[in-house]
Amino acid sequence: MSVILKVENVGKLYKLGEVGTGALAHDMTRWWAKVRGKEDPFAKVAQKNDRTQKSSNDYVWALRNVSFDVQAGEILGIIGRNGAGKSTLLKILSKVTKQTEGNIKLKGKIASLLEVGTGFHPELTGRENVFLNGAILGMTKREIKARFDEIVDFAGVERYIDTPVKRYSSGMYVRLAFAVAAHLEPEILIIDEVLAVGDLEFQKKCLNKMRDVSENYGRTVLFVSHDLNAIKSLTTRCVLMQQGTVEHIGTPDDVVRKYLDRYDDTEAEFRNVDKSKPNISNVSIATSKEGGIQYFGHDMTLTARVNIPEATDALEMSYELIKSETNEPIAYNFFSTSGTMAYLKGKSGSFDVNIKIASLRLYRGEYYVKFNLSDPRGKVVFQRIEKCLPFEVFMYEIYNEWGFADGICKYIEESSLEISEQECR
User: Fold this and answer.
1) Domain-by-domain residue ranges, the chain?
2) Where does 73-262 sit in CATH, by number?
3) 115 Cβ partners below 8 Å, 6+ apart?
4) What is the pLDDT of residue 33?
5) What pLDDT was estimated at residue 217?
6) CATH for the stretch 268-422
């Protein structure tokens, strides 16, 4: 196979708090430095793209030194946490924005699906937008007509095809946009995580279509998703991005494993624990799908191995579900031997405490779990596990047409307990 896309040392610099690059003098100075082969004079104060740290200057690198090749007919997956630079990279490849540095070499036409509504004119009908997108890709009216019925059938919007797309729901928008991008024969198809808007059946349909255009038509697909199972089952190679750089390139299984290992701090939380007192020696999570994927409204189970060296009548355990982006607790619950953990009262040994959270109500995003084990009488904290069991919530078949205001929204999550005694180790 030949190389169809080559990305060489690509970087994207943004000036915080301003639209564009700033004053004309900045642009001219930056251009003159490039002509002389010098480093960008305004890049010297830039920071890496680390959203966990507060910015102390006016510039930030959304991407830096990004390099990789893509073979013709390959399906390349791109994964990473929110803010890793994935969407910025795809916008540069789609020519929505231009890189600050580096080169991109590609062969053929690109069709991209980056955000809901990207590439569609809201005042035009679905039919008119299909022809508009085909014309942008360099197709003739006859070529578009030959595929029109197939596009409409795939999207399932026959009844609304002559309605202005501004009246479409988000799901209809995405279905038609994907159908257009996949059926108008671009050499490179770029899909961002916008498919999460669609229902499960349509997501599967899209994944099968991407596999089909790659295997049977030799087209290249770049696919960004937080659905690690889809990445492993669909892609032939994968890129892991971290803070605007490429951290690792390899097989999907290898890259996904590195991604999960990097963000799971669970093991570190069990070091230096006083085992002469009640303690938690292991925790695990059972989400809707493997790989830490949890669907809104589905059950989730947390399991903690609680060790009690000496029998006690007073023990309390709590958990909190923390939003990764803000480190704020969103949901919590607590249990004690005077109530739901009465089974442990006056006992010693090792016990698995299974906390079943029915119909989890967290909005989509990345989260982690915090545990506390304490003696409520003396206000003694035996153990505090600050950060473990990372997981990510998706809306599954449910998509809210309204917006969501971020903020601290604490509530007690309904949870049921199941405790089983284990052999001491």
Assistant:
1) 73-262, 268-422
2) 3.40.50.300
3) 192, 194
4) 77
5) 83
6) 2.70.50.60
